[in-house]
């Protein structure tokens, strides 16, 4: 590995780059996430109790990476791996570097299903790097705000990443970075606050076997929307905060959307049909992120007959806790 030079205003750096000793080991346990929750496009998210684990050990030289579980057969095992890139970015921001790394990824979060697998990879890599820096010197540790910023820079929006960092439900936003000498800032500034989810709320994910492309489904969205639809989503997004924290009886209304789900429906026929099935049964269901997973929020046990029907159609039905944020050990 090469000693980095931190460059962005969000970097947390020591006075000079310090070298990590060999033999330091950290494991990051990072939750999956679901974004949007209906009306909160690129804003609302929730951390889900399905976890990837990333173990990083400093070595004398080189890079060794192993991937187990989800994505083991279709992700690059080298410097271009998203986790490795995030580890290097985290070390850079903490003002440390390593002569070599041994990285083991144990993945349980399905890839390209709308459960935030890429955001989890980034958050896990950054958290592992942060854990290594803290073992060298606790003063080098990155704050949660910095982890939200760094992980969101990878994603380009903060909803999934901030949920995996902070846990619970999140409200996230971005604004343009400060300009220097009239030139645009290198990156936007990303922020998020966590919400404590009402204890009665249960989360169920219906996960299809096929994958979807975020770039493709995002490309289906129009550049402009009618004023009435924008106003509708503003009201439902505000209501969602109330429903998630204090009034789960309002979840049906709070998960209505006019900005992205209908527009994506042609690319997600199974997802769209199951959202309709669940909502007809009185269960607040939405597209999880860009799909194809269906996210259901309810206060009642998931109906046995709907579970059987979903599984018969090839959907994996996961009853998940609302998770805490990333943890290292």
UniProtKB/TrEMBL annotation:
Subcellular location: Cytoplasm
Major subcellular location class: cytoplasm
GO cellular component annotations of the record: cytoplasm
One GO BP annotation of this record: threonine biosynthetic process
Known catalytic reactions: L-homoserine + ATP = O-phospho-L-homoserine + ADP + H(+)
Signal peptide boundaries: none
Boundaries of every GHMP kinase N-terminal domain copy: 82-168
Pathway in which this enzyme or protein is active: Amino-acid biosynthesis; L-threonine biosynthesis; L-threonine from L-aspartate: step 4/5
Residues that coordinate or bind ATP: 110-120
Keywords associated with the record: Amino-acid biosynthesis, ATP-binding, Cytoplasm, Kinase, Nucleotide-binding, Threonine biosynthesis, Transferase
Database matches in PANTHER family: HOMOSERINE KINASE, HOMOSERINE/4-DIPHOSPHOCYTIDYL-2-C-METHYL-D-ERYTHRITOL KINASE
Protein name, per record: Homoserine kinase
């Amino acid at each position: 590995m090469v000693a980095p030079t931190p460059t962005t205003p969000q970097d947390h750096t020591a006075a000079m780059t310090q070298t990590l000793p060999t033999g330091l080991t950290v494991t990051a346990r990072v939750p999956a996430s679901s974004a949007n929750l209906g009306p909160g496009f690129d804003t609302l998210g929730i951390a889900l109790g399905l976890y990837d684990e990333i173990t990083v050990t400093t070595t004398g030289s080189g890079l060794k990476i192993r991937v187990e579980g989800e994505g083991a057969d279709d992700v690059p095992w080298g410097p271009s791996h998203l986790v490795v890139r995030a580890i290097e970015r985290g070390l850079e921001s903490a003002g440390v570097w390593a002569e070599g790394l041994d990285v083991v990824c144990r993945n349980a979060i399905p890839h390209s299903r709308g459960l935030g697998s890429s955001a989890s990879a980034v958050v896990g890599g950054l958290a592992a790097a942060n854990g290594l820096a803290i073992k060298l010197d606790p003063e080098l540790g990155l704050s949660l705000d910095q982890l939200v910023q760094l992980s969101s820079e990878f994603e380009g929006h903060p909803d999934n990443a901030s949920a995996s960092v902070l846990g619970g439900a999140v409200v996230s936003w971005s604004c343009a970075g400060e300009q220097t000498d009239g030139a645009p800032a290198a990156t936007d500034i990303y922020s998020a606050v966590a919400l404590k989810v009402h204890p009665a709320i249960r989360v169920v994910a219906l996960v299809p076997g096929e994958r979807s492309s975020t770039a493709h489904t995002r490309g289906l969205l129009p550049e402009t929307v009618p004023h009435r639809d924008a106003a509708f989503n503003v009201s439902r997004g505000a209501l969602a905060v109330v429903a998630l924290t204090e009034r789960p009886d309002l979840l049906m209304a709070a998960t209505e959307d006019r900005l992205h789900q209908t527009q994506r429906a042609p690319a997600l026929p199974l997802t769209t049909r199951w959202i309709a099935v669940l909502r007809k049964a009185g269960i607040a269901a939405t597209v999880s992120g860009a799909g194809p997973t269906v996210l259901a929020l309810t206060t009642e046990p998931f109906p046995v007959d709907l579970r059987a029907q979903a599984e018969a159609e090839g959907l994996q039905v996961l009853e998940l806790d609302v998770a805490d944020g990333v943890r290292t050990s």
